[in-house]
Amino acid sequence: MKGATTTTADLVRASLAGDGRAFSSLVEGHQDAAFGYALSQLGSAAAAQDAVQDAFVDAYLKLASLREPQAFAGWLRRILFKHCDRQRRRRKPTSSDVGGLSTASDPSDRLEARQTRRELLAAVDALPEPLRVVTALHYLAGLPLGDVATFVDLPLTTIKKRLFTARKRLREEDLMATTPMTPTPFAHRIELFVAIRAGDQATIERIVSEDPSLLEAEESWSDEEALAGGLTLAHHLTPLILAAGYGDLDTVELLLSLGASPEGRCGCHNGETAIWAAARAGHADVVDRLVAAGADPTHESRGGRTAGDIAAWRGNQELAERLPRSRAVAPPSASAFGLDGERLVTGIKAIDLWLPLTEGSVVLVHGPAETGLTVLLTELCAWIGRAGGRAVWSSWEPMRWHRREMETLVARAGVDQVVEVLVDHDDDDDAPLLDRAATKLRACREAGRLALHVVFEREGHRTEVAAALPQLRTSASLTVVVRPWEAVTRGDEKPPEALGAFDATLCLSPDLARRGLYPAIDPRHSRSRHDEDATEARRRVIAHLDDDTDDDVARRLLAFLTQPFVTAEPETSWPGVSVPRAATLEGVRAILEGRVALDEAALRYRGGLDTTANEPRHFQS
C-alpha cells in the first residue's frame, strides 16, 4: 500500500525503475475511475471489466512511452478508450448487457434492508475508536485484513481480535449477521449514476436491490476522478433528484417504488429537492408525480425559492399557478445583446470590456472546471433569446448519455426554448455536424434574427473545427469554440498566448472564481482584435492580480465587472441584468478617474453604476 505522500508521478517513475508493486498501486488508485469510464462507454459491466483489464496490461507494456508521469490518468483514459472501441467492435449488445431484472424481495423488504443498514452504520460509528477504525476499513471500505493491518500498523492477530469483538457487539444489537456486510464499491455508485443518465432501468433495479442504501447516495467523486474516468463533475445529487431533473418519469417511478424518499435534499450548495429540480427543468409531469408521492411543494431551496417560484422564473405560468409561491419573480431587464454600430454587444460587462466583438466573431473559450463556464454559455443564450435570436450547441458525443446531459443543462438554465442541441457520433451517416449547424444558423439570420453557435471541441475533431472557421464566421452572428474542459482542467491545454485564427480569446480564471468574482473572465488571457478601450483597466487589474498589489482601483474594477446572471437566479436570488456597452465603458472610466464613491462591496453583482445599491452581494459557492 502506497504512503499518503506518494504521488502518481512517483509511482510511474518507480514502476519504470522495476518496482512491480508500484504499478499495482497505480492500478489500485485508478481502477474504479477506469471502470466507470468503460461502463459509460459500453453499458455492460462484464465488457467494461474486460476493457479495463486489457487497458492496464497495455499501459504496463507501454509505460516507457509516457513522457510526463503526472499525466498518467489522461494517458490511461486514451488507452482505455481504444480498448472500449475494440470491445464494441467485437460484440453485439445483448439483453444481458444491462443486467437482468432483480429477483430480490418486494419493496417493503427493500425498505427494511435500507433501515437496517442505516442502523448498522450508526452502530459502527458508536464503537470505540480502535474497533471502529478496523471495522470501517474492512467491512465498509472492503480492505483485506492484511491491508488493514498495514494501514494501521498493527499485527494481523490484533486486527482479527478487534474485528471479532466488534462483530460480537453488533450481533448483540441484532445488527450484524455472522457474515460480513457487503461493501458498496465506488464502481457501484458510478454504475448507478451512469445507468440513470442512460435511462437503463434494469441496471438501476439490480444495483439498488442489491444495496438499497444507494438510494441516498450522492454523486461524490472528486474532480480528479471525473477527469480520469470521463465523468461529469459531481453535483452531489441523489438518484431521484438526478432522474427528476432529467424529466425521466419512468425512472422516477422506479426509484420511488424501490423506496426513494420524495423529500430528500441534495448535498449541493442550493439544497435542491427532486420536485425543485423537476420544476427548474420544466418537467411538469414529474412534479405532479412527486407531489402525489408526498413531496412538499412548499419546501424552499437555500436561496429561498419554492418549486413554484422556479416554475415562474422559467416562464412556466401554468405550473407556477398550481404550486405554492414564496416570492414574486422580478421582470427581466431589457436585453442589450445586439449590434451597436460595428460592435456586437453581449450585455455581459467583462466580455464587452476585455474582448469586444464584431458581427461574425469566432471566440476561442478556455474554461477549467469550477470556473462558471456552462453558466456563462447559457447566459449568452438567455440574452440572445430575449433579443429574439436563437442558439445551436454542437458537440461530438463522447458518452451515450451526452445529449441528455446537454439538454438537461440548457433546460435547467431556462434556455431550452432558445437552444437546439446537435450531437454527432463518429459513425453517423448524416451530413457533417458543423454543416448541419450552419444550415440552421443561416436560416435564423435570413429571418432577421441573431444567431449564436456554441461548438464543443472533442478529441479527434480539432482539425474539423479549424477547417470550418470560414463557415463559422459567415453562418452565425457569434461563434464560441469551447476547448475540452477536461484537457483544460488537467493542464493539457494552456491558455492561448495569441489570437491565431480566432477573432478573440476568452479564458476563465480559477483564482477569480475562488474569490467569488463571476464571470471569472481573466484579463491576462482574454483579448480581441478590438480591445483598445480596455488598455488602462487591463494594466491596472493585471498588475493587481500578478503582483497582489493593494490597488483599490483594480479591486473596484473587478467588483464592477461582476454581474448577476439570469440563468443563476435560482441559486443567487439576484435578478439577472444585461448591461449596454456604453454603461460598461462609463462605469470603467468613472472608476479609473476616481469619480466613484461606492466601495468594492457595493459594486459587486450590479449592472451599470446607476443600478448599484448599498447592500453588499457576495457569491457563495
What's the layout of helices and strands?
Blueprint: H1 8-16, H2 20-42, H3 45-62, H4 72-90, H5 107-126, H6 129-140, H7 145-152, H8 156-172, H9 186-198, H10 201-210, H11 223-229, H12 239-246, H13 249-257, H14 274-280, H15 284-292, H16 307-313, H17 317-321, E1 338-340, E2 343-345, H18 349-354, E3 357-358, E4 361-366, H19 373-386, E5 390-396, H20 402-412, E6 419-424, H21 433-446, E7 451-456, H22 462-467, H23 469-475, E8 478-482, H24 485-490, E9 504-507, H25 510-514, E10 527-528, H26 535-547, H27 552-560, H28 569-572, H29 581-592, H30 600-603
Parallel strand pairs: 4-8, 4-9, 5-6, 5-7, 7-8
Antiparallel strand pairs: 1-2, 2-3, 9-10
CATH domain topology of the domain at 338-611: Rossmann fold
CATH architecture level-2 label of the domain at 338-611? 3-Layer(aba) Sandwich
Largest sheet: 7 strands, mixed
Alpha-carbon distance between the two ends: 35 Å
- The percent range for strand residues is 5-15%
Low-confidence stretches: 92-114, 177-184
Task: Based on Cα principal axes, name the global outline.
Answer: globular
Structural class: alpha/beta
Fraction in helix = 40-55%
How many E strands?
A: 10
Q: Write down the Rg.
A: 26 Å
Tell me the number of helical segments per DSSP (H or I, 4 or more residues long).
30
Strand order of the largest sheet: 6-5-7-8-4-9-10
